[in-house]
Amino acid sequence: MIRLDKYLCEAEAGSRSQVKALIKKGRVTVNGEPAREPERKVDEERDRVELDGEPVCYERFVYYMLHKPAGLVTATQDKRERTVMELLKEAPGRGLFPVGRLDKDTEGLLLITNDGALAHRLLSPARHVDKTYLVKTALPVTEQMYEALRAGVEIGDDKPTRPAAADPLPGTECGLILTITEGRFHQVKRMLQAVGNEVLYLKRLSMGPLVLDETLEKGAFRPLREKELEALGRTDQGKADRGGAT
Ligand code: URA
Question: Is residue 84 lining ligand 1, measured as CB closer than 6 Å?
Fold first, then answer.
């Protein structure tokens, strides 16, 4: 349950003072009855809130798939660099942040949400969520390199990397598809360096059950689809879609 004025703010019906004024004017109804007290509580899951007779669409959590282009840093803000969040300026939702980090020159799948619990689950080192990358390399990837990457390599941390899946990228000797289950700093680049190669291009294809939608242009984003939310265990959780636009 949350306050009606907070509910309307989060649904982007206006600022706190604007929504209070709307409520006082009797333009807001809850379950068909005029609601004139900003502090009255509403149930985000069950109550039907309308503004001027139109359903208010309230979504506590929002989830976007972004096709990150190279050249932007993965951060909510940065003093010097452009961030991925600049691409989502028009995206509804408060408190959005990227889940995990891709290097400035890395492209591909980035999940942007305001669901901290989900982010925590996907990033938790204990959960070993799969991350699959398309990697283009400076040198051909030899059988020895594949074996080392699959077994785990020393990259200068306390422990070698966990075993990874590594398979040739069809159509080239200088590339591979690599699936890792950790998220160490510059991990893929350091793994390739450790086996005597070098990453020239890196793109994330998937994270856990979420797969990059290749129809998304670089720099474009879209809300996650129901099936994707389901795969992440997030259907209808903390989400009350009133089925209409504000
Ligand atoms: N590994 C890297 O080296 N860079 C990334 O951006 C992601 C994984």
Answer: no
CA of 185 to the centre of ligand 1 (A): 7
pLDDT tens for 91-124 read 988 889 999 999 999 999 999 999 999 999 999 9
Is 155 near ligand 1, meaning CB less than 6 Å away? Answer: no
pLDDT digits (tens, 9 = 90+) for 1-57: 889 998 998 787 888 999 999 999 999 999 999 999 999 999 887 899 999 999 887
CB 161 within 8 A of CB 193: no
What's the angle, vertex CA 88, arms to CA 86 and CA 89, rounded to 5?
70
Global pTM? 0.79
Residue nearest to atom 2 of ligand 1 (CA): 186
Helix (H, G, I), strand (E, B) or coil at 120: helix
**Catalytic status, residue 157:** no
Centre of ligand 1 from the C-alpha of residue 74, in Å = 11
